[in-house]
Design a protein that fits this description.
single chain, two-stranded parallel sheet, globular, mainly alpha
């Protein structure tokens, strides 16, 4: 199964990673990242580092779901502590793979799609972990809105990158969001989930609602900013059409089956179904950016979405059939995104002629980089300085 044409792979050779901006906390966290980077083995593939962070996300989500499968009960405090540590570990691994790319000389499209591919799936894992602090299983609509905001924010960032060719980072971005998530988990570990039901300053809203509303408002502004910049570069709406139509269908099907989902504790399954669909769209638009190609509207990821929505509209109210269908759609979406991710990364790696999880003989090491310390006539920083002091 091939997803990239010969022309796509030819254009891939011209891709160059471009980043603009730095968050408020990045300049402070960079000191810790530089220290942690010294413990990364010299011959470790950058993609292995991405996998380390991804595994931490899987383990934390699995731990939360084990204790609260429907997010309706409070998990033990130590679980929140473990999840905060896991998120911190993931946050640390995220920049280290980029540093290792520069240290090894392997800054290719494989590392870009591998990093963002892991991030796209990890986003739904971290969402489940974070919302477990609020026990939102009893307020499924609020849970879904929170998820939608995160989905649209992450996707429009990739869409903006596709349109401009530059990854734009704001003053308050992913690093700040992750730190807030860790603080939320640690606060819950100390005071319990009931702390978020507290009303403050005489407001009619409790802390959960304030957190949801604040996140929604800031997320909407971020989405509008990304969309505005994308439209300014006159890029087609087609890359976002599959994503938008899919979310409309998800919203409709959730509205029609919400009572059943709440009664049978299927909220997390529905969330993973939606999360895998979103991960596929995120990866598709990253690929389109890498190869300067176009995204088609129709994609296999729409098949389970359309099937579940059609059954929600026209099917019977048999709960057993609906449960089998939802699980089948969730599994289909997972397999679909897994096949796409695996095949695309393999096609790219074969094109470049290297193995994904191993640095091969002849690839640059740390010591090779140190030897490249001759002064540059254009005053360009030495390679060793460049990967030591920059992310």
């Amino acid at each position: 199964m091939k997803f990239l044409s010969f022309d796509d792979l030819e254009r891939l050779d011209k891709w160059v990673y471009k980043l603009k901006g730095v968050t408020i906390l990045d300049s402070h966290m960079r000191k810790w990242w530089n220290i942690a980077f010294k413990f990364v083995p010299l011959k470790t593939s950058p993609d292995v580092i991405s996998v380390w962070g991804f595994i931490a996300g899987i383990l934390c989500a699995a731990l939360v779901i084990f204790y609260s499968p429907a997010l309706k009960t409070e998990v033990p405090g130590w679980v929140h502590v473990v999840c905060a540590i896991g998120l911190f570990f993931y946050q640390t691994m995220d920049p280290l793979d980029g540093k290792q790319c520069r240290r090894s000389g392997r800054s290719s499209g494989v590392e870009e799609i591998f990093d963002h591919g892991c991030d796209s799936v990890n986003s739904i894992l971290q969402y489940v972990v974070t919302t477990s602090c609020f026990v939102l299983g009893h307020r499924s609509w609020m849970w879904l809105i929170f998820l939608y905001v995160g989905n649209f924010t992450f996707f429009t960032v990739q869409w903006r990158t596709y349109a401009t060719g530059i990854m734009q980072v704001g003053k308050i971005d992913h690093t700040e969001t992750q730190v807030m998530g860790m603080m939320t988990m640690l606060t819950t570990a100390v005071y319990g989930s009931q702390i978020w039901e507290t009303k403050v300053l005489g407001l009619p809203f409790n802390l959960v609602e304030i957190a949801i509303y604040t996140t929604t408002i800031t997320g909407v502004f971020k989405v509008l900013e990304n969309v505005q910049d994308t439209i300014a570069h006159k890029k087609s709406i087609i890359p976002a059409s599959t994503f938008i139509i899919g979310h409309i269908l998800f919203c409709l099907s959730f509205y029609l089956t919400q009572a059943w989902i709440d009664e049978h504790d299927m909220l997390v399954v529905f969330g993973f179904f939606l999360g895998f669909f979103v991960a596929k769209q995120d990866q598709r638009i990253v690929i389109a950016h890498l190869v300067e190609g176009k995204m088609k509207f129709w994609d296999t990821s729409l098949i389970p979405v359309v099937a579940y929505t059609c059954y929600a509209i026209f099917g019977s109210a048999d709960p057993n059939t609906l449960a089998v269908l939802l699980w089948a759609c969730c599994v289909f979406s997972f397999i679909d995104v897994a096949i796409f991710f695996t095949c695309v990364t393999r096609e790219m790696a074969d094109h470049y002629g290297f193995e994904i999880f191993r640095l091969q003989k002849g690839e640059r090491t740390f010591w090779d980089a140190l030897e490249e310390d001759a002064p540059d006539p254009n005053n360009k920083p030495r390679v060793a300085d460049e990967f030591t002091h920059n992310d």
